[in-house]
Design a protein that fits this description.
Layout (H helix, E strand, L loop, with lengths): L1 E3 L17 H29 L2 E6 L12 H21 L4 E8 L5 H14 L3 H6 L10 H12 L10 E4 L3 H4 L1
Helix pairs in contact: 1-2
Length: 175
Amino acid sequence: MLVNNAGVGSSANPKPVLNYDDAFWEMMLYVNLTVPYLLSKAVLPDMMSSHYGRIINISSVNGKMPALHGAAYAASKHGLLGLTRTLALETVKDGITVNAICPGPVHTLINDLRIEYDANRLGKSVSEFEATMTPMGRRLEPDEIAPLAVYLASKDSTPMTGQAINIDGGQLMIG
């Protein structure tokens, strides 16, 4: 099993595309897209020889929608969904499933920085902004994401491959 969960978020350097730092763009795409590609490529031979494997890519709802002042993040997560679906198609007959989890805003230290940036940009308090991010009125907690990863890693998920599953508190419903 491989879980590609490491990544860089847009909070590290939020800017409009016109002012984007090219080196930051390259680093973001490398960490968020190229590294999962390389790690997947490294584990596939063993998975193929055993006719079993699970690859779980942690993407984002921003793999399905834009991220204002986060072009590199959105582009890398859109790309990760394309990689997920292509790997799933190429490996399904080898007993390997490849799926992506697409979390909405998750309460982490890195996401705290992005929430502060957006709240300040909109002239709102952090709590006011946070209450409008999802229909639930809050961010998700990391332990609310983990059960989906456990399921995707299990044998019970055998018929599920090539999927990009939202766990976003309804964020995509409100755009």
